[in-house]
Design brief:
The protein has 122 residues and is mostly helical. The protein is 79% helix and 0% strand. The termini are close together.
Protein backbone atom coordinates (compact mmCIF):
# COMPACT_ATOMS: atom_id res chain seq x y z
CA UNK A 1 0.00 0.00 0.00
CA UNK A 2 1.44 3.34 -1.05
CA UNK A 3 1.44 6.48 1.08
CA UNK A 4 -1.42 7.99 -0.94
CA UNK A 5 -3.47 4.79 -0.62
CA UNK A 6 -2.76 4.64 3.11
CA UNK A 7 -3.79 8.30 3.38
CA UNK A 8 -7.13 7.52 1.72
CA UNK A 9 -7.58 4.62 4.12
CA UNK A 10 -6.90 6.81 7.16
CA UNK A 11 -9.21 9.57 5.93
CA UNK A 12 -11.98 7.03 5.39
CA UNK A 13 -11.41 5.50 8.82
CA UNK A 14 -11.28 8.87 10.57
CA UNK A 15 -14.42 10.09 8.79
CA UNK A 16 -16.21 6.91 9.87
CA UNK A 17 -15.03 7.27 13.46
CA UNK A 18 -16.12 10.92 13.49
CA UNK A 19 -19.48 9.72 12.20
CA UNK A 20 -19.74 7.22 15.05
CA UNK A 21 -18.76 9.88 17.56
CA UNK A 22 -21.43 12.32 16.43
CA UNK A 23 -24.06 9.58 16.15
CA UNK A 24 -23.31 8.63 19.76
CA UNK A 25 -23.56 12.28 20.85
CA UNK A 26 -26.88 12.55 19.05
CA UNK A 27 -28.16 9.28 20.49
CA UNK A 28 -27.31 10.44 24.02
CA UNK A 29 -29.16 13.67 23.31
CA UNK A 30 -32.21 11.74 22.06
CA UNK A 31 -32.40 9.47 25.06
CA UNK A 32 -33.76 5.97 25.21
CA UNK A 33 -36.33 5.01 22.59
CA UNK A 34 -39.49 3.45 23.97
CA UNK A 35 -42.56 2.29 22.10
CA UNK A 36 -44.54 5.36 23.15
CA UNK A 37 -41.89 7.87 21.99
CA UNK A 38 -40.65 6.11 18.83
CA UNK A 39 -42.45 8.40 16.38
CA UNK A 40 -41.14 11.49 18.14
CA UNK A 41 -37.62 10.05 18.02
CA UNK A 42 -37.85 9.46 14.28
CA UNK A 43 -38.66 13.14 13.79
CA UNK A 44 -35.95 14.22 16.19
CA UNK A 45 -33.37 12.09 14.35
CA UNK A 46 -33.68 14.24 11.24
CA UNK A 47 -33.56 17.47 13.26
CA UNK A 48 -30.68 16.70 15.64
CA UNK A 49 -27.50 18.44 14.41
CA UNK A 50 -25.15 15.84 15.89
CA UNK A 51 -26.91 13.06 14.02
CA UNK A 52 -26.85 14.98 10.75
CA UNK A 53 -23.13 15.69 11.20
CA UNK A 54 -22.54 12.01 11.96
CA UNK A 55 -24.37 10.91 8.82
CA UNK A 56 -22.42 13.47 6.78
CA UNK A 57 -19.14 12.13 8.15
CA UNK A 58 -20.21 8.60 7.19
CA UNK A 59 -20.99 9.82 3.67
CA UNK A 60 -17.58 11.44 3.36
CA UNK A 61 -15.95 8.26 4.64
CA UNK A 62 -17.86 6.20 2.08
CA UNK A 63 -16.82 8.48 -0.78
CA UNK A 64 -13.17 8.31 0.25
CA UNK A 65 -13.46 4.52 0.64
CA UNK A 66 -14.76 4.30 -2.93
CA UNK A 67 -11.72 6.30 -4.05
CA UNK A 68 -9.54 3.85 -2.15
CA UNK A 69 -11.24 0.92 -3.87
CA UNK A 70 -10.25 2.35 -7.25
CA UNK A 71 -6.61 1.90 -6.19
CA UNK A 72 -6.39 -1.22 -4.01
CA UNK A 73 -7.96 -4.66 -3.89
CA UNK A 74 -11.08 -5.18 -1.82
CA UNK A 75 -9.21 -7.98 -0.03
CA UNK A 76 -6.85 -5.32 1.32
CA UNK A 77 -9.20 -2.35 1.80
CA UNK A 78 -12.01 -4.14 3.62
CA UNK A 79 -9.89 -5.70 6.38
CA UNK A 80 -7.83 -2.51 6.73
CA UNK A 81 -10.95 -0.45 7.35
CA UNK A 82 -11.32 -2.40 10.60
CA UNK A 83 -8.92 0.16 12.07
CA UNK A 84 -12.13 2.05 12.78
CA UNK A 85 -12.96 -0.57 15.44
CA UNK A 86 -9.78 0.28 17.31
CA UNK A 87 -10.39 4.01 17.08
CA UNK A 88 -14.02 3.62 18.16
CA UNK A 89 -13.15 1.62 21.26
CA UNK A 90 -10.51 4.17 22.24
CA UNK A 91 -12.90 7.06 21.56
CA UNK A 92 -15.59 5.37 23.66
CA UNK A 93 -13.12 4.88 26.48
CA UNK A 94 -11.57 8.33 26.55
CA UNK A 95 -14.58 10.49 25.58
CA UNK A 96 -17.58 8.56 26.88
CA UNK A 97 -15.75 6.89 29.80
CA UNK A 98 -16.67 3.38 28.62
CA UNK A 99 -14.64 0.60 30.16
CA UNK A 100 -12.39 -1.66 28.09
CA UNK A 101 -12.21 -5.29 29.17
CA UNK A 102 -9.09 -7.41 28.85
CA UNK A 103 -10.65 -9.51 26.09
CA UNK A 104 -11.35 -6.31 24.14
CA UNK A 105 -7.70 -5.28 24.41
CA UNK A 106 -6.66 -8.71 23.12
CA UNK A 107 -9.15 -8.37 20.26
CA UNK A 108 -7.88 -4.90 19.38
CA UNK A 109 -4.31 -6.21 19.36
CA UNK A 110 -5.37 -9.04 17.04
CA UNK A 111 -7.07 -6.55 14.70
CA UNK A 112 -3.95 -4.38 14.69
CA UNK A 113 -1.71 -7.31 13.82
CA UNK A 114 -4.15 -8.44 11.14
CA UNK A 115 -4.30 -5.01 9.52
CA UNK A 116 -0.51 -4.76 9.49
CA UNK A 117 -0.27 -8.17 7.82
CA UNK A 118 -2.96 -7.35 5.26
CA UNK A 119 -1.67 -3.94 4.20
CA UNK A 120 1.99 -4.98 4.10
CA UNK A 121 1.25 -7.72 1.54
CA UNK A 122 2.91 -6.96 -1.79
Amino acid sequence: MTISEFSLLLISVLAGVCGQFFLKLGAVKLGKVEIDNALNHIFRIVTTPELLIGLTCYAIGAIVYILLLTRVNLSVAAPAISLSYICSVLLGHFWFRESIATNQIIGLAAISIGVILVISHK
